[in-house]
Design goal:
alpha+beta, Pseudouridine synthase, 2 domains, elongated, RNA-binding, RsuA_PseudoU_synthase
């Protein structure tokens, strides 16, 4: 049985308008439920036919969040012309799309959803959300390799952020990233003359592959979704604070801005040179 909700709340949850505006529309007789003019405070469900100004009220699709253990060979795209596209591989009955990417030769956790707004929030670089990987390379790992991977390497015209790297066997390590540069781990390894032979994503934020076998997927739990939403909200608040601080400091001259940028680049280069010694 569909859940009963007050009519004003039901209307607002579709995104049509606020509860206050919904009350106004109801009072003005612009809303009908099953062809009849409703009383204030009436409760409705998905089984009821609701019209506003003679037009059916369109409901928002129920949020869908999936965790998928992507096998090697599946492409993180919704392009239907690609026979290896991730949407076809999963075969979900509603329209969904991946949050971010995972290279075709890589395997492991990738999230999918039908909520476009949350995709942008999770992918936003400034949010610093953790992603953990298990990586196997083509030759024995040295302490120097671990140190340099953890402390930043020059790829794609930048220095990678410091990260946590842990050796777990002669040729395998785990790495936790908070940025998502294109083919970042593979490029970092290549810079140190290593080739990645196996790359598996184990975790995104608080979501893990768990018992999922390659090719299997599951719905996220309510607890997992709440933790994601909480982390996103916290990141958004930090970004608003940063924007406010930026506006307050906007009086600085163009020369000062350039000087700061140059100083930051010099510090990055100095840190990288120190890491090499």
């Amino acid at each position: 049985m569909s859940e009963l909700k007050r009519l004003n709340k039901y209307i607002s949850e579709t995104g049509f308008c606020s509860r206050r505006d919904a009350d106004r529309l109801i009072e003005q007789g612009q809303v009908k439920v099953n062809g009849l003019q409703p009383e204030m405070g009436v409760k409705v469900s998905d089984n009821d036919k609701i019209e506003i100004n003679g037009q059916p009220l369109k409901t928002k699709p129920k949020p869908v969040y999936l965790a998928y253990n992507k096998p090697v060979g599946i492409t993180s795209t919704t392009d239907s012309s690609d026979p290896t596209n991730i949407v076809k591989a999963i075969g979900y009955h509603e329209r969904i799309f991946p949050i971010g990417r995972l290279d075709k030769p890589s395997q492991g956790l990738i999230l999918l959803t039908n909520q476009g707004d949350i995709v942008n929030k999770i992918l936003r670089a400034g949010n610093n959300h953790e992603k953990e990987y298990k990586v196997t390379v083509n030759k024995p790992i040295t302490d120097e390799f671990i140190y340099k991977m953890a402390n930043g390497l020059p790829i794609l015209d930048t220095i990678t952020k410091r990260c946590k790297v842990t050796k777990i066997s002669a040729r395998t390590f785990t790495i936790v990233l908070t940025q998502g540069l294109n083919r970042q781990i593979r490029r970092m390894c290549e810079y140190l003359d290593y080739d990645v032979t196996r790359l598996q994503r184990l975790r995104i934020m608080n979501i893990e592959t768990g018992d999922l076998k390659p090719g299997e997927w599951r719905h996220l739990t309510e607890q997992e979704i709440k933790k994601i939403e909480s982390a996103i909200k916290s990141s958004s608040n930090n970004q608003i604070h940063s924007l406010d601080s930026h506006k307050k400091g906007k009086r600085q001259t163009k020369h000062e801005s350039v000087s700061r940028a140059a100083k930051k680049r010099a510090q990055q280069k100095a840190r990288f040179r120190n890491n090499q010694n």
